[in-house]
Design a protein that fits this description.
The protein has 140 residues and is mainly α. The protein has one domain (7-139). The protein is 64% helix and 11% strand. The chain contains five helices and three strands. The protein has a three-stranded antiparallel sheet with strand order 1-2-3. A hairpin with a 6-residue loop joins strand 2 (107-113) and strand 3 (120-123). It is elongated, with a radius of gyration of 18 Å. The chain starts with 6 loop residues before the first helix and ends with a helix.
Length: 140
């Protein structure tokens, strides 16, 4: 049985926790955007999931931005800035969720194959990066 005091095991556990925190925090952002869209469209509670559920995150952002900019044209630049940040966080979510994670002495490392470029790149070699992303998501 592995020693729970082993630094490699501690680093791996820390990274699993960081991954989970980011994904959970991101899911809250996605839910809030769905609620905002629902309110803007004046959906009945019973229609919330039926109307907002089919959108993937990118399309959810696109639709919500269009509706927000129509309703608040004077805030167009601010709306675009906020949703640009949301889309950047989604890029991280995709890499985190769809990477091949490998274990090394410092913890976990993500190897992600981009569907656009077909290039394999390494991400999140520093565990603090996942923690920073979670903080960014919380403040968004």
């Amino acid at each position: 049985m592995a020693d729970e005091k082993d630094p490699e095991i501690k680093a791996t556990v820390r990274d699993f926790i960081s991954i989970g925190k980011f994904i959970a925090t991101f899911s809250q952002i996605e839910f809030v955007i769905r609620v905002v869209l629902s309110v803007l469209l004046k959906l009945k509670h019973d229609h919330f999931t039926t109307v907002t559920g089919p959108y993937d995150f990118a399309m959810l952002c696109t639709v919500t931005v269009k509706v927000l900019q129509h309703e608040f044209p004077q805030k167009k630049v601010e709306i675009e800035r906020v949703f640009k940040q949301c889309r950047a966080l989604n890029d991280h979510r995709v890499r985190i969720a769809y990477s091949f994670w490998t274990h090394d002495a410092d913890g976990l490392t993500a190897r992600y194959l981009s569907r656009q470029s077909l290039e394999l790149k390494t991400h999140y070699q520093e565990s603090e990066e996942l923690q920073r992303l979670t903080e960014t998501a919380r403040s968004s």
